[in-house]
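Appendix C: a fully annotated inverse folding record. The material below is reproduced so that readers can follow the format used throughout the book. The structure is listed first as tokens, followed by the designed sequence.
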């Protein structure tokens, strides 16, 4: 049983295409058909839920068995939504040629909730998803033969296979070194390369100009800064080369979570969609592997 009492039932698996759209950074957008209604959905690997829609879209598609789960979600940066968070069930979900029945849905507001929902970590894990940024393609519950063929293709193209760490119900991570400091960073499918402010300090990465303001899901706000100079990321034997498109922010203030006392236990930020696009990444969530071009 999934959260919210929904049972899962696979009718088929398959493939789907996605488009990259600019939504606070670049994000992969796939069309999902829910109860017969097509909607734009971000494939969002650091959203710890099965799928999300706003209250307006939930009414449109007919989310059932709704029950309230307290205060969560924002109407705008720094402004909590008064609608809170609800959990419910969607009878049918179709993405590409893949079909599911009776899936859990989280219903809360985001600044883009009128246009976009999210396919989160629960859907990604259940689908054993592979997301291919080279070809804008999703493999949903791929067969062993599909995975073998893909691996052979990536080896020929000179990709490094980097093991990801997985903790149940939490985003996938890889260990990233900047300078002499190493932290686990989230393997994120969306938005920018984000370096947590404490990791940046430990790695002696200076802050440049203020480039924006973040708005966390619990109402927190804070500054977003460019890096003062390009940084190089090292992930195992892989090297990014100097990259200038990273941003710095306090990711724990953003999420509203408590920062660990031991800084080495804290997350160092997120390798976001912009990073994945630049390096033509392939992420195999089912086998815990991140592929990056050498």
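Designed amino acids, in order:
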């Amino acid at each position: 049983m999934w959260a919210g009492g929904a049972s899962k039932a696979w009718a088929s698996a398959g493939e789907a295409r996605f488009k990259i759209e600019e939504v606070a950074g670049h994000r992969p957008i796939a069309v999902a058909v829910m109860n017969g209604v097509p909607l734009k959905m971000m494939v969002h690997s650091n959203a710890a839920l099965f799928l999300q829609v706003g209250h307006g879209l939930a009414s449109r598609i007919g989310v059932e068995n709704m029950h309230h789960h307290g205060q969560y979600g924002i109407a705008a940066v720094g402004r909590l939504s008064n609608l809170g968070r609800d959990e419910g069930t969607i009878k049918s979900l179709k993405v590409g040629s893949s079909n599911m029945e009776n899936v859990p849905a989280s219903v809360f507001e985001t600044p883009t909730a009128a246009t976009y929902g999210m396919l989160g970590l629960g859907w990604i894990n259940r689908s054993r998803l592979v997301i291919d940024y080279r070809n804008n393609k999703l493999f949903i519950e791929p067969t062993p033969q599909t995975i073998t063929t893909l691996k052979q293709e990536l080896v020929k193209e000179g990709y490094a296979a980097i093991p990801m760490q997985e903790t149940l119900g939490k985003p996938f991570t890889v260990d990233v070194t900047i300078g002499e400091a190493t932290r686990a960073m989230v393997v994120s499918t969306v938005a920018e390369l984000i370096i947590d402010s404490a990791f940046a300090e430990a790695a002696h990465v200076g802050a440049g100009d203020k480039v924006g303001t973040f708005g966390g899901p619990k109402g927190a706000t804070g500054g977003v800064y460019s890096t003062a100079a390009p940084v190089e990321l090292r992930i195992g034997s892989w090297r990014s080369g100097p990259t200038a498109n990273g941003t710095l922010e306090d990711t724990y203030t953003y999420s509203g979570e408590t920062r660990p006392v031991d800084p080495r236990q804290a997350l160092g930020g997120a390798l976001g969609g912009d990073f994945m696009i630049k390096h033509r990444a392939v992420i195999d969530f089912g086998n815990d592997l991140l592929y990056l071009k050498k």
